[in-house]
Amino acid sequence: MDAKTIRKRIKDELGLNCRKVSVRGRPCTYSWAIDVVIKVPTAKSPIEAIAKGAESIDRCEYSGEILSGGNTYVSVDYAEGVLDGFFDEAAIAALEENPGKTLELPGGFEVFYLDHYFHVKRGNTISYDHPERAYGARGAGRLYAERLLEDQAAAAKLKEAS
Fold first, then answer.
1. Domain boundaries, the chain
2. pLDDT tens by residue, 142-155
3. Is 0.90 surpassed by the pTM of this model?
C-alpha cells in the first residue's frame, strides 16, 4: 500500500480530505517512509489503523534487527499546534513546582507530576498499573488531548450505534 492508497482509504472510510489529513510518501535509504499528519482535532486511532496497515518492516529471524531495504515505515502524528486549544500548558507546568498536586481536566482526566514525569490518568478510576508518562508539560497536554479526542470518538460511535 502506498501513500496514495492510504489517502484514498482515509477519505473514503473516514471522510477526511487532504485539507484535514496530509499523507506523503518519500524514499528513505532503499526503503519508503509514509508520513501522515492530522491537521484537525480528531481521533488518531482510526487514521492510525488505516495507515499502519501499510507498514512493512523485515527483520532478521535470529537477532530481530531490521533488514535494510524494501521496508515501509509509517508515522502518524498531529500537526504542530492542533491540540494546543485543549490544555493550558502554564497550568500543567506549574505542577512541576508542586509534586503530588493534581490538576483536574475536563473528561475526568487528571495530570500530576511525580518522579520527573508528568502523568495523565483517568481521575475516577483506580488502577494499579502505571499511568501514561509524558516528558514536559506540552507532552502531558498533548497526551491528554489525544485521550480526550479518542473518548469523544468512542462516545459518538456508541451513540451512532444505538
1. 3-78, 84-161
2. 777 888 888 888 88
3. no
